[in-house]
Specification:
single chain, mainly alpha, 2 domains, about 60% helix
């Protein structure tokens, strides 16, 4: 008689694994990564490789220190996803130690000191990014000019020298190769008293957001639709995040378009689209209930807009995500779905 392996009820294998989910996330990132590398250069790929290598190295060390087996944890692809998401948030020619410090904060502090994958409260990639953004704001403000606007570009050798040597070639300078991002430009020029109509005359702007940034956002959205199709993420967070962004900015834009940006400028500039589909949808640090996910996405949008408008930093996505991560236990508690056949908790 043939024997069959029997597992506890309901006797069905899991539909997905961590490795499968993280693998789908990496696949979904590919179109956006290609677009970002096209507009900002080969350095994007170098930063991704560096961040992933540091993440895997620190993951291995922490597993050993905690007495955990290297496998399956090293093969679940969670560390590469953390590294890739972080690397896409920083300039392509950032020095190598930026990725090292960020991954130390992300893997050691935000992940393993909380007990490892599944127990962390805050999104590791955003913790790493927030740490280096606060500590090294100048290094993370030097974005290269996008391809259509770049008067000069770095060759592969010069780029590697910049990343690993810490300085540009003697014949170049950051002022000639870098350019303020669209969000930086709006914040700086608005503070000087210019209207948005005057500010948008800068060639850094495209039809809606920033030149190049619009296409990058489009390709991240395409990857996000792939994740929705694969049922890796739920629709509530991206719909709430993008919808709230538009709903909150339309009235202000209609009231005074000289001061308040076009709603689509918020959507297609900075990291909002990446956050909507890849960062705020993290199943570990995000809300677990449908209503909770709607509130979570709306909260990220509202906080991002508030930081962009009144904060010191031009883009507040990372801080907004981390603040909402801290609210998740409360959201999960107050949005528990009513069990079939039972009244609400306050009725019992």
């Amino acid at each position: 008689m043939t024997g069959f392996a029997v597992a506890p009820a309901p006797h069905l294998p899991a539909r997905s694994t961590v490795r499968r989910v993280m693998g789908d996330v990496l696949v979904a990132l590919v179109p956006g990564v290609i677009a970002q590398a096209w507009y900002f250069g080969f350095g994007v790929l170098v930063q991704i490789a560096l961040a992933i290598l540091f993440a895997l190295f620190l993951e291995s060390i922490m597993l050993r220190l905690r007495g955990q087996d290297q496998m399956p944890w090293m093969g679940d692809l969670s560390a590469p996803v953390t590294g890739a998401l972080f690397a896409l948030c920083i300039p392509a020619w950032s020095p190598w130690w930026i990725a090292c410090i960020a991954m130390f904060a992300a893997i050691v502090f935000a992940k393993h000191l909380y007990g490892g994958l599944g127990r962390n409260i805050f999104n590791p990639a955003m913790v790493g990014y927030a740490v280096v953004l606060i500590a090294f704001p100048l290094a993370l403000a030097r974005w290269p000019s996008p391809e259509p606007l770049a008067a000069h570009t770095l060759g592969v050798g010069d780029l590697l020298q910049t990343i690993f040597g810490g300085h540009l070639p003697a014949s170049q300078g950051f002022d000639t190769l870098s350019q303020a991002t669209p969000l930086d430009t709006v914040k700086i020029e608005a503070a000087r008293g210019y209207t948005l109509a005057e500010i948008r005359g800068d060639p850094v702007f495209g039809d809606f957001g920033g030149k190049g940034w619009e296409w990058i956002a489009d390709w991240y959205a395409l990857g996000g639709f792939y994740l929705l199709w694969r049922r890796v993420i739920h629709w509530q967070v991206p719909v709430a995040l993008l919808g709230t962004t538009i709903l909150l900015t339309v009235p202000a834009w209609i009231a005074d378009p000289d001061v308040n940006p076009l709603p689509l400028q918020h959507v297609f500039s900075g990291g909002l689209m990446l956050a909507a589909f890849f960062i705020a949808t993290d199943p570990v640090t995000g809300a677990a209930t449908p209503r909770g996910r709607l509130i979570f996405g709306a909260g990220v949008a509202a906080l991002t807009l508030a930081i962009r408008r009144w904060g010191t930093y031009p883009d507040g996505v990372a801080f907004a995500v981390l603040l909402m991560n801290a609210c998740v236990p409360l959201l999960d508690r107050i949005t528990i779905p009513r069990a079939y056949g039972h009244g609400r908790a306050h009725d019992e």
